[in-house]
Design a protein that fits this description.
The complex is a heterodimer.
Chain A (H helix, E strand, L loop, with lengths): L10 H16 L4 H20 L2 H4 L5 H4 L2 H13 L1 H9 L2 H4 L6 H21 L2 H10 L4 H27 L4 H17 L3 H10 L2 H9 L2 H9 L5 H23 L2
Helix pairs in contact in A: 1-8, 2-5, 5-10, 5-11, 8-10, 8-15, 10-11, 10-14, 10-15, 14-15
Chain B lengths: L3 E10 L2 E11 L4 E5 L6 H9 L6 E6 L2 E2 L4 H6 L1 E4 L11 H11 L5 H11 L15 H13 L5 E5 L7 H15 L3 E5 L3 H7 L2 E6 L2 E7 H5 L5 H9 L1
Parallel strand pairs in B: 3-8, 3-9, 6-7, 7-8
Antiparallel strand pairs in B: 1-2, 1-4, 4-5, 9-10
Helix pairs in contact in B: 3-4
The chains are: A mainly alpha, B alpha/beta.
Chain lengths: 252, 234
């Protein structure tokens, strides 16, 4: 064997290696295709059959994005459950921790791969945008901002899912825990829960809780408003999740 | 210069003192047989040396890089194969080694992968999914990922565990080929392995070093190595 360079690996190269491995990892099992199909079926069905997208006779995707917090709350933990739980189960966590890469870099590579996978799921739904474009004359900018918002919302749910996955070696437990946490984020600002809170707390508190929920932050995007605060909110949740999962793995 | 240096390492898990003040150093060309009963603190010591765990006190360094202060530099010089040779089961052998080469930032990673496949006699299973490998191949893959960057320090946790005599012979042969240029620690339960492979013996029991001496000196302790081992670890 030729003598080794044993150079200190560059952070970006290492993150890129992890990202590529993780992303292709999704497609090594049939589960990825099932996931993409389920996401697509639910996203479209909810928009048409529950949101009455067609009957509404309005050329926009409001009713399509309306259900995305629910979808991501369910499916981001499904995609994120393997992030760390699988490493623990396979024992490969011991390799990762002894390779010349920091836990933070690994976590970032994994997170970006999972986010990219969710972006693929979202991209598959674009025919619905083309359909609306064919049937009416929608505002393309609004539709694009809706997709941006949905993707950010997915990132936030994935951040929560990463924490759940770092806590256990069981993907099932990681999924259920992640789903419950995301579910709580959806409920904050959701009608029924709002009414429940309004009975016990002042309107100001109810409003503050609503601000912390997913739906309240997604709404401006679906209206074509690229507001600073919701962007910060989604990215904060995503990166907080990333940071906390890194700390959990480092302190295992 | 010692390539591996453990200085007064201590590690507790709650009330259990797994490692209590372990110190030793390993130079280039040495192959250490690291022995001890189960639960003696062997694996914990290895985890402290490889940076998997952080010590409560004391320090460990690889090629003069402190494992806690300069983890990336230390780990770049280290090849480690954990017990059971874990790997990503859904990848092929070649994909896995390419991934490790890329992650380590190796130049000419494709060439390195080919060289490592040849060295570890894995070429014939290069396109096979790891989950479908036999135990012998699996252990050799664990070894391959540890040597792909030709590290100066090699730490192997039970590299011949569960292998048949031919496979054991093969792993030992590869190890001997590269040992002269490296500092190697091999943990093992197989006392016969010492005679064939190691230059020095370190025996650990109840978290403490009970014996640290050249193989020749150790072998003079008695005919029955099992008995010697039992007495030292009692």
């Amino acid at each position: 064997m030729s003598p080794s360079t044993q150079a200190k690996p560059r952070a970006l190269t290492a993150i890129w290696a992890v990202l590529r491995r993780e992303f292709s990892g999704y497609f090594r099992t049939p589960l990825a295709y099932v996931f993409l199909a389920v996401f697509n079926a639910f996203a479209i069905s909810l928009a048409f059959f529950v949101g009455n997208l067609y009957e509404a006779n309005v050329a926009n995707l409001d009713r399509f994005f309306l259900y995305h917090p629910w979808l991501w709350a369910f499916l981001a933990p499904a995609a994120g459950a393997r992030l760390w739980a699988e490493e623990r189960k396979q024992g490969t966590i011991e390799l990762i921790l002894t390779w010349p890469i920091t836990v933070w870099q690994t976590a970032l590579g994994k997170f970006l791969a999972a986010w990219l996978f969710l972006a693929c799921a979202l991209a598959i739904t674009t025919p619905i945008a083309f359909t609306v474009g064919f049937l009416g004359s929608p505002d393309v900018g609004v539709m694009v901002s809706g997709y941006v918002g949905s993707l950010l919302c997915a990132g936030a749910c994935l951040g929560v899912a990463a924490i759940a996955s770092a806590l256990t070696r069981s993907q099932v437990i990681a999924f259920v825990t992640g789903f419950l946490a995301c579910f709580a984020l959806v409920m904050m600002g959701y009608g029924i829960f709002d009414e429940f809170l309004a009975g016990a707390f002042s309107p100001r508190i109810v409003e503050e809780v609503r601000r912390l929920g997913l739906w309240r932050n997604l709404e401006p995007f679906t209206l074509g408003v690229l507001d600073f605060r919701p962007i910060v909110y989604f990215l904060s949740v995503a990166f907080a999740g990333l940071g906390i999962s890194t700390i959990i793995i480092e302190r295992r | 210069m010692a390539l591996i240096e453990a200085k007064n390492l201590r590690k507790s898990y709650g009330p259990i003192h797994a490692v209590r003040g372990v110190s030793f150093s390993v130079n280039r060309g040495e192959v250490i047989g690291f022995l001890g009963p189960n639960g003696a603190g062997k694996s914990t010591t290895m985890k402290l040396l490889t940076g998997h765990l952080q010590p409560d006190s004391g320090s460990a360094s690889i090629a003069d890089f402190d494992v806690v202060q300069n983890p990336i530099e230390a780990k770049s010089q280290l090849g480690y194969s954990p017990e059971g040779a874990p790997a990503y089961g859904e990848m092929t052998v070649r994909e896995f080694l390419s991934f490790v080469a890329q992650l380590r930032g190796l130049k000419n990673s494709a060439t390195r992968v080919d060289e490592t496949l040849t060295l570890c006699r894995l070429t014939e299973v290069a396109s096979q999914i790891i989950d479908t490998l036999s135990k012998g191949y699996r252990m050799r893959l664990g070894f391959a990922q540890a040597v792909i960057h030709d590290p100066s320090v090699l730490i192997l946790d039970e590299p011949t565990d569960g292998l048949d005599p031919n496979q054991k012979f093969e792993v030992r042969r590869i190890l001997k080929e590269m040992a002269a240029r490296k500092a190697v620690i091999v943990s093992t339960h197989i006392l016969e392995e010492i005679e064939e492979l190691c230059t020095r013996i370190i025996i650990i029991a109840r978290g403490e070093v009970r014996c640290d001496e050249p193989k020749e000196v150790f072998l003079q302790r008695g005919q029955d190595l099992n008995k010697v081992f039992r007495e030292l670890t009692a």
